[in-house]
Amino acid sequence: MSSVMPPMCDVAVIGAGLAGALVARQLAQQNLNIVVLDADGVATGATGNSSELALLGTPEFHAVLEEQRGPAFATEIWELSARNLELLAATAQSLGLAAPAVGSFRLIGTSAEAILVQRSVQRLSHQGFNVLLEDAMELGYLIGLQTYDDLAFDPVEMTQRLLMHGHITLRPRTEVQRLESDSNGVVLKAKRNSLRAKAVVVATGAFTTRLCPRLAPHLTMLPVQNVECRTQQTLPMPLLLDNGQILLQDRGEFWRLSAWTNQTGEDPWTQIEKYGKQFCPQAIMTRRYTSWVGRSSDGLPLVGQLAGTPHVYTLTGLGPWGLSWAFIATQQLLGLMLHDEDPGLFNVQRFNTT
Ligand SMILES: Cc1cc2nc3c(=O)[nH]c(=O)nc-3n(C[C@H](O)[C@H](O)[C@H](O)COP(=O)(O)OP(=O)(O)OC[C@H]3O[C@@H](n4cnc5c(N)ncnc54)[C@H](O)[C@@H]3O)c2cc1C
Questions:
Q1: Does residue 332 lie in a domain region?
Q2: Cα-atom radius of gyration of the chain, to the nearest Å?
Q3: Nearest to 19 by CA among 50, 49, 43, 39
Q4: For residue 315, with 0-12 CB atoms within 10 Å meaning exposed, 13-18 middle and 19 or more buried, which class applies?
Q5: Burial of 138: CB neighbours in 10 Å, binned 0-12, 13-18, 19+
Q6: Do residues 61 and 330 make contact, with C-beta atoms less than 8 angstroms apart?
Q7: How far apart are CA 145 and CA 154, in angstroms?
Q8: I need a surface site. Which of 46, 145, 158, 284 has the fewest CB within 10 A?
Q9: In angstroms, rounded to a whole number, what is the distance separating the alpha carbons of residues 209 and 59?
Q10: Which one of 38, 171, 178 would you pick to mutate in the ligand 1 pocket, going by the greatest count of ligand atoms within 8 A of its CB?
Q11: Ligand 1 in contact with 33 (CB < 6 A)?
Q12: 172 within domain boundaries
C-alpha cells in the first residue's frame, strides 16, 4: 500500500479503532470521501485488546448515578447504553457478524452494596430493563445482579469490515503529528506527508491529548491489565466484580481476567491475583499484558466539536467499558456533523476546553 496520501478529502478520521471505523463507515455511506489514518494498523489499540463484551449500563450502580447526578440522568444513561446494544446488534447483522446475548453476573459482597443494587434493580425493572437479583451464596457472595442483554462480539473483525468501503481510503503506519485548522478546513501533518480535509475526526483513544492538548485536564490514559490462564473449570457466564472494574470470562481455551481502577494508588494486578486464586486456583497463567484506554473525568465519552479548532471533531474517552458506548457515541457525533444536533450528555463542551 502506498504511503502517499491523497492531497484532499472530505473527512479525515484519525484512528482505525472501533470508534474511527464506525464514524468512517457512516460518513462513507453519505457518499463522502474518507481517509482513515492510523499510527499503527487497524484495531491495534484498545479495540484489538478488548475483552469483547458490550455490557448494559455503567460500572457505577444505577442508584449511585441517581444520588450523584439525579434520576433523569441515571435513566438517560441506561437508555443510551441499551440503545448502544441495539445499534451494535444491527451493525453486526449488517456486516454478517455474530453478536450473541451472553449476559453477565455482577457479584455483590457487602451489605452496603447489596442495598444499592436492590434499589437499582427496583428502578431498572420498573423502567423495563431486563435485570434480576439472584442468590450468589454458592460463589461466596451475598447476591448477584443478573443482566441478560450484554452482547459478545469480535471488535477486530467488525472494525476491519467497517473499513471495507469504496469511499474509504486507509493509511496505516501514518502517525498524525499536528493539525492546522483554518476557515476552509484542516491540514493534517504526518512525518512525510500532509493532507487537507474539509473536516477531521480525532478518534485516537488513549492518545488523544497528543493531538488535542486542550482535552488534557479532562482525559486520562487508564491502564487495563489482563491475565489469560489455562484451566479445566468452566464459567457459565462472564462475572463482574469490584464496581465493574474486574471482568472474568471463560473463553473456551482459556479464562481471561481484566482489571482497571479509577482509584489512584490501587493496583489492578493485586485484584487479578486475588480473584484468580479465588475462582481458578489451579489455573496456569499463559499470558499477561497491559493495554490503554482514554477515560474522561466523568467516565462518559467525549463527543463533538473542539473549541478553538474549526472543523475538528472528536470521538474519544470511551473508557474501559467503551464497547458500551462506541455505537451510540458515533450516532451522537454523526447527528452533530450532518444535522447540527447537540450530542447531549456526551458533548465534549460540557467541559470548558477553550
Ligand atoms: C484490555 C482491555 C479490555 C477491554 N475490554 C472491554 C470490554 O470487554 N468491554 C468494553 O465495553 N470495553 C472494553 N475495553 C474498552 C474498549 O476496548 C475501548 O473503549 C475501545 O476499544 C476504544 O476504541 P477506540 O477506537 O476509541 O480506541 P482504540 O481502539 O485505542 O483506537 C485508537 C487508534 O488511534 C491510533 N492513533 C493514536 N494516535 C494516533 C495518531 N497521532 N495518528 C494516527 N493514529 C493514531 C492508534 O494506533 C489506535 O489504533 C477494553 C479495553 C482494554 C484495553
A1: yes
A2: 20
A3: 43
A4: buried
A5: exposed
A6: no
A7: 25
A8: 284
A9: 24
A10: 38
A11: no
A12: yes
**Considering the domain boundaries, does residue 99 fall inside one?**
no
- Work out how many domains the chain is built from and give that number: 1
Q: Cell digits for 100?
A: 450473541
Opening angle at CA 13, ends 207 and 83, nearest 5: 85
> Which residues on neighbouring strands pair with residue 200, listed in sequence order?
12, 312
The CATH number covering residue 187 comes to 3.50.50.60
Strands 34-37 and 8-14: parallel
Q: In 3-70, where does DSSP find H-type helix? A: 18-28, 46-49, 62-69
At 190, list the grid cell: 504526518
Nearest to 154 by CA among 260, 50, 225, 78: 50
For ligand 1, say whether the CB of 320 is within 6 Å of any of its atoms: yes
Q: Is residue 246 part of a domain?
A: no
* Cell numbers that stand for 217 in this block: 485536564
pLDDT value of residue 249: 96
- Whole-number pLDDT of residue 2: 41
SS3 state at 50:
coil
Q: What are the 10-residue block averages of pLDDT along the chain, 354 residues in total? A: 64 98 98 98 97 96 96 96 98 98 96 96 95 94 96 98 98 96 93 93 97 95 95 93 95 93 84 91 92 96 93 97 98 98 97 74
* Ramachandran bin of 152, using left for φ above 0, alpha for ψ from -120 to 50, beta for the remaining angles: beta
Candidates 36, 51, 291: which one to mutate for ligand 1, based on the most atoms within 8 Å of Cβ?
Answer: 51
Q: Are 109 and 117 in contact (CB under 8 A)?
A: no
pLDDT digits (tens, 9 = 90+) for 76-108: 999 999 999 999 999 999 999 999 999 999 999
Q: Which amino acid is at 10?
A: D
Q: Extract the C-alpha cell encoding 147.
A: 443482566
Ligand 1 centroid, distance to 323 Cα (angstroms) = 10
Q: How far apart are CA 307 and CA 309, in angstroms?
A: 6
Q: Residue 313: give the domain boundaries.
A: 8-49+156-216+298-350
How many CB atoms are closer than 10 A to CB 243?
16
